[in-house]
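Curious: why this fold?
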Amino acid sequence: MGMQFSVQDLLDLLSPERSVAPKVLQQKLAIEQAEAGEQLQLALDALEKVNLVEKTQGRYRLVFNDEIIAGRLRCSSKGFCFVTPDGPESEEIFVVEGGLKNAWNGDRVLVRLLKKASRRRKPEGEVVLVTERANSTLVGRLAVDDKLLMVLPLDDRLGNLLELVEAPKAELAADQIVEVQIVRYPLGRRPAKSRLLRVLGSANDPTVDLDLVASRYHLQFGFDPALVAVAAEAAALPPDSTGREDLRSLPLVCFAETGRDFALSLVREDTGWQLGLHTSDIAAFVAAGSPIDLEGYRRAFAAQLRGQPLPLWPAALGERAALLPGVDRESWSVIVTLDAQAQVRTYRWTRSLVQVRTQLDGLAEDHRQVAAALTAQGVAPLAAPNSPQIFVELLESLVGQHLAHLHLKGPFAWQAAPEGTEVLDWLRLGRACGLEVPEAEAPLELDGQHYRRWLEAAAAHPSGPTLVELLRATLPAAQLSAEPQPYFERNSTAVAPWARPLQRYADLLIQRLLVQVLTEGRDRKTPRSKVSVDLRASSCQGLIDWPVLKPKQQKDWEEAIPGWIAHLNTRTQQIRQALADLEGFERIGRLSTEGEPLRGLITGVQSYGFFVAVEEPFVEGLVHVSGLKDDWYTYQAREPALVGRRSRRRFQIGDLVKVKVKGIDYYRQQVDLMVVREEIEPSGGGEQPESPLLTAPES
């Protein structure tokens, strides 16, 4: 039987200030069986052995040990592993060879620091204890021999072969794709053991991809019937106008592009515009801690996987909360006053009752006029011109800035600036393709406006689709944080997830926070103060120097928000990776080793070969130097380029080449390419070498 708790659960219950008896820990961990009690004692002994807890008179407390660091393990497919410490500003620790101690990618671990960081090296350490396993199930390829059934994980960052136990061997075949549950993790040299959950299909069956991705990332498309019934009851409730501002007279429109949880109203005034930004009030239907709420929290994020919806809420609830044309709906509205140049002058937010008049395919003329002015101010620099997304990004920036002025913790959305080396690599490629972009070696202060100009320049190039895709790939994914942080792509210092409450659970958290502000927020410093502020309006900004929420509310919120954010970030990243995996499968599935030559752009050159981005479908593959049999090729690092010693034929970034598919590893999404014969004909005569010879790099 597996452990009923993780070591991380145990660590969360211990503190340096107070010693705790094992019986108290048993109660808090809800341990009843004797075997689980023995596991608790083993875990405490292990923590004591690594000097992380101290035992005094049969009671345990945490002790500070600066050589033991907690974090999450991250491994590459090449076997290099790093531990990302829990501390926000701590540097990654490289795990030395032999230092994994049977930990797997994604596990939470305790690592012992062996070497401190130097100017050129990361700190080094070894895993001493796995505190929480990241993978209770996995997907792999079945291997069969006379005695054993083994499973090779498709994710090559997850250990080695697992033994499959209690499986119907006669019904299984080699190379089937299976989902298994891990019943024992590796012990010393003994492999992990697993139990069969289901057979997903044959390794060559293209229909297995969706099941594979759903299993790998624990995605669930449907809902429990009991939840569906509860959602249907909530959906049957009539619109409730209690405590809401009636805004049904405003000319609301919605857009297919922005979904059914966002609508826009725009009214021309003598001195400018009144802009209304409206979102579905999902908080009116989902009570905190209810079964529907817990399921939405677990899912975190809605998506479409190959046309199949992966919803956040049951269909009836989503339909009831959606801002649909012709029906009254509960909403949150932000009413913005714009001057004639579309500069924001004032705004206020309120719970409202609205009715959408129609759905548009794109922005109307007045909308486009305001959108153009907002774009000129730097709002939504990477949004497409005339896109409703410009108004979505304005809305989320206004709400984020308001929360920051109220001194409330998030969740806030943020996005790091692109990694410098990745941007420099793209700039080098862009210049090689003839784009007018800065020198790759020049220091850059990046912002969204740079990216807009580069995207426009790349789109106009003959290899535009490839250059645009590679540039967008340098943008980090957005995340959540408790404090406001810059959002690179939007040129904003505070962004709140607000406009997608039917798609993101984080938006519901912000709605609940503002309900507390609306109903119990403190609009003055002390009860005796005669001067108050309007907590719902921009006029309060810069005037608040007191906690807006009551002390207990503030404490409860601030204690809960880090855990919520950690879960939502992890879950959102899993769904993004699932989407990327499916897109990769679809693209690679369109390739064939028997197909026609493909046009591609050389995007990188190394001593062992060069990478080519095929334009249609967009796939990057490697042309290995061993496949260039027309000459001996020398690697020149400064260019970088591969240069034929005799023919002086060059392969360097920015070159267009014709390639054919040499080999495909479908599940790892790796493609090997070869240059077609006419592309590598030598310029001179002479005998062809049988194999290439790679000489030392030239400086």
About this structure: The CA atoms of residues 325 and 356 lie 5 Å apart. Residues 68-132 form a domain with the OB fold (Dihydrolipoamide Acetyltransferase, E2P) fold (CATH 2.40.50.140). The chain has six domains: 7-62, 68-132, 137-205, 231-415+480-578, 420-475, 598-698. Confidence is low (pLDDT under 50) at residues 679-699.
